[in-house]
Design goal:
By secondary structure, the protein is an all-alpha fold. It is built from 5 helices and no strands. α2 packs across α5. It is globular, with a radius of gyration of 15 Å.
Amino acid sequence: MLLDRMHPEDVKAAIRKKYGTVARFVQEHELPTSGVSDLFRGRTSARVAKAVEKVLAEDAESKHLDCDRPAGTTGKGAAAA
């Protein structure tokens, strides 16, 4: 489980990269307002943990794909290069 191996700030950073804010993540997943904070305090909710794990897995996959990209490319099409 990625969540168990990551620092809480890294988890929040991954959420913010995808959703902009932790609050928007909570809203879009219809989670309890304090769900993410509670998760970091050890008060786990299976629904919150599953939603966070999904974001972390997508972020890890994104990083893996970035490593496979040739140096000097942005991945945003020919116009950006």
